[in-house]
Amino acid sequence: MKRRYTIAALVTASVALVCAGAVSATTADMRSASVHRFVFGPATWQGANKSPIKVGLSISETGPSAATGMYQLRGYQLYVSQLNRRGGWLGRPVQLVVYDDQSNPGTAVLLYEKLISQDHVDLLVGPYSSGITQAALAIPEKYHMVMLDPGAAASNIYAGVQWNFQAIEKADRYLLPIADICRGHGWTKLGIFVNNTSPFTLAAANALKERAAARHLQVVFVQGYPGTTSDFSSTVLAAKSEGAECIAAATNTPDSIGLVREINRQGLKPKLLAETIGPVEKTFLTSLGTLVNGVLGNTQWWPTLKTPGNKQFHITYTKAFAQYPDYHSALGFAALQVLDAAIKKVHSLDQTKLRDAIRQLRVPTVAGTFKVDANGLQTGFKTYMMQWQDGNPWLVFPAAVAQKKIQLPYSP
Q: Into which CATH architecture does domain 2-171+307-370 fall?
């Protein structure tokens, strides 16, 4: 009975998100999103059973999350392409049924409802971002369908769920190395910028504050800003006089770029500058040029890591899409590796059997070993730090897998 009330509350919360002005999903949004529906799968099939297994998802093809969301989508696409060449699942071809959620949580809720009730998909994978997943995850809970979520690092959004599985390292761990690195250099004053409208960035910032206290660092400012911010002049100015030796920013891609630009424009001189989402992506370099140098960023995948199949993944992704993957690509690919392992284990698309199998599985993937706890939270994947040096990205932390040493103090 308790679980029934929890799921009802999740569904109610998602409906509230759809109706809220901040989300503003409308019938017009749905009509616009429907235009962007596409099906990705083989044109022909040699097997006896040509009826496709449909895997449904929404992804941010447009809107502020599009640059990152497309990496995740391409990871999904690459896996399905390779899977079909190997014979698909259960002797059947596999199709991706994809809608553009326009980076809008409310639209994503409506689209996952549509995928299940109208498109009649057999399986689900998650959208990009913790905020969008937080809204959408109530739909698979309602219909008792498994959904692997490689785009949702905020652990608190999974409270009470039974059918969703976190397929990405927890947000709480993203910035923890920064406190250790600062302390190791004898720097004791830490400043934190945080996108305060994202569950992911709030979780990352809060965990860093706790780690800073444990490392006896003084947090001299915590400066929040809305995720829609494009002018960071007042945000940075408010922190300028606080004397932070190390600055960490819990960001998404657009604000990661805006903050670095404004920190340099106003002449802040931290000895260390790190951000969460953003630095690892190509758009970071193309937007900032030489200002990228010295910036540290998070990643959960790197081409030099010795994970199973990683070298081939890097080669085939780059060839297929004429760009290098980032960790969101690897996590999208890895989520379908996990689903593949579960289907092979139970020889079925039965959702209860798949759910129970995923809870027990340890799956070696290109992004590391997938494993979840009893609450569906990720315990197997790891996070790493990269740094831009002389216009190139390098893996720099931890030392055991680093390509180069961290260059400090920060100097673009």
A: 3-Layer(aba) Sandwich (3.40)
